[in-house]
Structures
1.
Amino acid sequence: MSVAHQLDGRARDAFRNSFGYLPRAVAVAPGRMNIIGEHTDYNLGFVLPAAIDRHVGVALSLRKDPGVRIRSDRYPMPVDFDTLPDRRQGNWTDYVLGVACQVRGVAEAAAGFEAAIVSEVPVGSGLSSSGALEVAVAVALLRAQDLQLPPLEIARLCQRAENSFVGARTGVMDQFTALLARAGNATLLDCRSMHHEPVPLPGPAFSWLLADTRVRHELAASAYNDRRAECEAAARELGVASLRDAGPDDLERITDPTQRRRARHVVSENARVLQAAAMLQRRSPRALGGILYASHASLRDDFAVSCRELDLLVELAAQGPTVVGARMMGGGFGGCVLILLETPGLDGLEQYLAEGYARVFHRTPEFHRVRSVDGVMPGAAS
Ligand code: ADP
Ligand code: MG
C-alpha cells in the first residue's frame, strides 16, 4: 500500500473517532523538498521542487448548520466554532479556516464542516506542512461538495489563504507542488508564467537526505518579510516589475549595498536553478554538487538567511566521501539541509553528521530519507 493510502485510512479513522461517523471526503497531500531556487518564488523567478513521501491527510464532512469543528493529531485541543470565522485566530486553525473562507469565496460552499487532520510532515522544518495542509483541506472541501477546480486555481486559492488569512507572504511553490508534482521528477516552475515541466531526478543510486537542524530562530518570520521588502525596493530602483527581470549587469545600479547583495542572490539563484535543471535533464547528477554548494554560499553571504547550525551541517556533509552536494533549504534561520549523496553512504553520513553536530550544539539533527512522490493531481492540465 502506498504511503498516501495509509494516511487516507488514518484520516478516516481519526474522523470517526472524533465525530462518530464516516467522513464524506478525504484528501492526502504531500510535503515537499526544493532541490534549488530559494527566495526566488516571490521574485517571480524559478524553483525546482519535488513532492516527498511525507503527507498530510484531511477527512471531512459538511454540516447542515454553520458550525465548524476541527481536530488535528498534532494539537490535542479540539477547536469548535459556531460559524466560520472570517478573521485569523492566531493559531494552527488559521490554515484551515483561511482555506475554507477562500473555497467559500469561489464555490458558494455550504454551511459548516468538520475535519480531522493527520500528518507525517514535520511542522515548521521547511518541508511545507502548511502547504500540504492547505491543499488537503481545499481538495477535501471541494470533494465533499462534488466540486472541481483546475489545480492551479486551487494552488492560488491556498496561497491567498496563507497570504491574507494566516498573514505569511509566501509564494505559490509549496501548494503547486503538493498538487501537481510527479513521482520520480522535480518540477521546473517559472513562478511568473506558471509554466512548468518535469525534470527527471537521479535514479536509486543516489538519495536525498534532509537533515533537520531542529532549530527555528525567532528571526525567521520577520527576516522573510524584510527580505521580500528589500527585493521589492531593489526592483523598484531598477525600474523592473520584479527581480526576475534583472540580470547580472543591472546589479551595480542598485545604490544600497544590502539591497544589491539581496538582488545578487536572486539573480544568481535563478541562473543556478536553470543550470541544475539542465544537468538533471542530461542525467548528470554529479554536476549538481557545485551548484548546490554555490546556492548555500549565496544564501549565507548575500541573502543572509543561514545560521550556524545550517552552515555546520553543510560543512560536515561536504566532508562526506559519498556526498554530491548540500545546501540549506527553505526560508532559513533553521529548518533542514538538503543533501544529495550516493545511496550506500546514507548510514555512514547520518552517523557522521549526528556526531559532528552534537559536538557543537549538544543535540542531534533529525534525518528524513525522502523519495519523490506524486502530488494530489499529478500532471493534471493546469
Ligand atoms: P512548514 O510549512 O515549513 O512546515 P510553516 O510555519 O509554514 O512551516 O507552517 C507550519 C504551521 O502549519 C504550523 O505551525 C501549524 O500552524 C500548521 N500545521 C502544519 N501541520 C499541521 C497539522 N498536522 N495540524 C495542524 N496544523 C498544522
Ligand atoms: Mg509553510
Note: The longest strand covers residues 49-62.
2.
Amino acid sequence: MITHPDNTDARDEYAVMGNPIAHSKSPRIHSLFAQQTGEPIHYRAILVEVGKLPEAVADFVAGGGKGLNITVPFKRDAWELVDERSRRAERAGAVNTIKIEPGRLFGDNTDGVGLVNDLRHNLQIPLQDRRILLMGAGGAARGVLAPLLEQEPALLVIANRTPERAVDLAAEFADLGTVQGCGFDALENLQFDVLINATAASLQGDLPPLPDGIVAEGACAYDMMYGAKPTAFMKWAQWQGAAKVSDGLGMLVEQAAESFYIWRGVRPETRPVIAQLREELADG
Ligand code: ATR
C-alpha cells in the first residue's frame, strides 16, 4: 500500500489556539513532555481570528485532533463552546484545556492547579492558614481563586484598581472560604504571607499601587507573568523584604503538565522542563 508521507506520522495531534500565539511556549513545553514520557504526540500553535474559535476548533476536530489548549483571548469562548465542563472550569468561567472525545468536547481549566502546584511543590510555600493577597480581578484572578481557596488559607484578600470588581468577585467565591475584595488603598496596615500578582500591570511594565509594609516576614511574592527579567512587582517585593520571589514560568509548565495528564493519563516531570525553559529564556 502506498501512503502519503503526511499519513506516516502516527502521532496524535494537539495544539494551542490564541491570538497572538507566535511567542507561545506551549509547543516547546509539550514537545519536551513528549520526549520525556515517550508519548507519541505532535503539538503546534494555531493563530485564530478573534470571534472564530468555533470554526477553528471544528476544523481541528475534523482533522482528527485529540486535544487543545486555549489561551488569550479565547478562554471564555472555549467555556461556551464545550459540551461538558469540569467543576473547576465551571467555577473559573474559563476553559484552557479541551479533550476531544468521540462526539463530545470536554473542557477543563488547569491554570489554578498549575499555580498551586508551583507554589506548593516547586517553591515549597505552604498555603494552609496563610494570609494570601491576590491582586487583580480579571480572568487571570478568577481562574485561580477556587484552587487557592481549596488550600484553606486563613484569609484571601482580592485587591483591584477598580475595587467593585474585587468586591463582586469575592462575593461570588464566598462559599469556598474567607475571601474579601477591596481597592489597593484598603491594604494599608495589613500584612500577607503570600502575595500573588494576577493583574495585567506587568505586561505594561507597571506595578499595582501597593502600600509599603504589607509583605510579612518570610513572605513569598509571585507574579503570574514571566520573562527573562524580573517584573516591576518582583523588584518591589524584593525591596519590601520578601523571602522568596518568583515569576510565573513554573505555573505555565505546571498547567501544561496537568493538561498533558488529562489528555494522555501520564504525568510528566515538571522540574527538568522548568529548568530547561529558564535556560532558554535567559539565552533570549
Ligand atoms: P486578565 O484576563 O489577564 O485578568 P483582564 O480581565 O483584562 O485580563 O484583567 C486585567 C486585570 O489587571 C484587572 O484586574 C485590571 O484592573 P481593573 O479591573 O481595574 O481594570 C488589572 N490591571 C491592568 N493594568 C493595571 C495596572 N497598570 N495597575 C493595576 N492593575 C492593572
Note: The domain at 126-247 is CATH 3.40.50.720 (Rossmann fold).
3.
Amino acid sequence: MIQDTIHEKFVERYGEHPQLFSAPGRINVIGEHTDYNDGFVLPAAINKRIYFALKKNDSGQCRIYAHDIDEEYTFPADQKEPVKKTWVNYPLGVIREMMKIREFNLTGFDCIFGGDLPLGAGLSSSAALETGFAHAINEIFEVGVEPAQIMHLSQNAEHNFAGMQCGIMDQFAAVYGKKGHVVKLDCRSLDSDYYPLHFKDYQLILCNSNVQHELASSEYNVRRKQCEEGVGIIKQNHPSVKNLRDVTFDMLEEHQDQMDEVVLDRCLYVLRENERVHDTCEKLQENDVDAIGRNLYLSHKGLSEMYEVSCDETDFLVDLTKDMEYVKGARMMGGGFGGSTINLVKIDSMEEFEERLAKAYYDKFSIQADFFEVETDDGIKSH
Ligand code: GLA
C-alpha cells in the first residue's frame, strides 16, 4: 500500500519512525466556479490521497521530500517569504498561516509526502497538500487549531503563497469529506448537507485528459474579477447585494445594457449553475439519473461557452459521450483548462466507455487518457 511505501521511505531516508497522516483529493458533481461567488457546490472527498510521514528533528530546519517527483527542499523554521520552488510554497504557506492563528514553537521537522492522487488532474491535489500538511503539523507540534481553522488557513496559504485566489470548496471537501457521501455546501454560511452517493445502475467515472494548460491560475483570477465587476454594476442600484449570490435573474436583466457582454455571460452562468446544484440535490434523492445527467451536460455547456474555462481536450471528451447511450451526462470538473471530466456511466458499460473514449482521444490528440471510478472517502486523517 502507498502509505507503507511512504513510511518505509522515511525510515530509509531519515532513519527514524515517523507519524503518518493523510488528506484526500476531491470530485465535484456540480457547482463549478460558484464557491467564490458565495454560491453552492456539491463535492466529495475521494479515495486518492496524499500521505504525510512527519517527525520533529529539533534542528531548526524543515526538510521536506516530495516522493512523487523525487525532490527534497530544506528551509529554516523562520522562513517567512515564499520561495522559488513552487510546490514548497504550499507547506511553507500553511506554516506561516497557522502561525498567524496561533504562535507555536516550530523546532524543525523531516517530512516525506506522496500518494496516489495525480497532480494537475483537477482533483485538487493542492488542497490535499495544504490540509493534510496542516493536520500533520497541528498534531506533531500540538498547535491546537480546529478543523475549520485548518480549512481556512489552507485557503489563505493558497491565496498568499501560491497566488491562486481559490474559493473554499476544495479545502472544505478535503477536511470534511465523508465516505459514501457528497456534500452540498453553502459557501456563504458554510452550512452543509450530506447526501448518500449512489445511482443504482450508474457510476461516476473520471477521465483525466492529462493536460493542464498554463492559463489555469491566471484566468481563474480573471474570472473572479469579472464576477466582481458584474456585482459592482448591480450594486449601484441594489446596495444590499454583496456578491453574485444575492443577484437575481431580474437584476441581471435590469442591468444588462450597462454590462460588457462577457461579464454578463459570466454572471448568468454562475446564477444558472447555482440553480443546477439545488436541482441536482433534489434529483439525487429521487435517483433521477436522467435529470442529473442533463444538468451535467448543461453545466459543461455553460463552462465552455459562457464561462470559457474549458479547452479543446475536455470539450472533445465531453462531446464524444453524447453519442453513447449508456452515458447520462458528462462535464469538465474543477477550475478548468484541462484536468478531468466527470461522467455518469451505466455500470455494465464502463469498459466499453473507457475503450471508446481512450481510443478516440488518442487518435485526436496523441495523449493517453486515464480513468478512475469515483469512490468517496473521509477527509483528513491520522493513521
Ligand atoms: C478550483 C478552486 C475551487 C473552485 C474550483 C472551480 O478547484 O480551488 O475553489 O473555485 O476551481 O469550481
Note: The chain is about 40% helix and 25% strand.
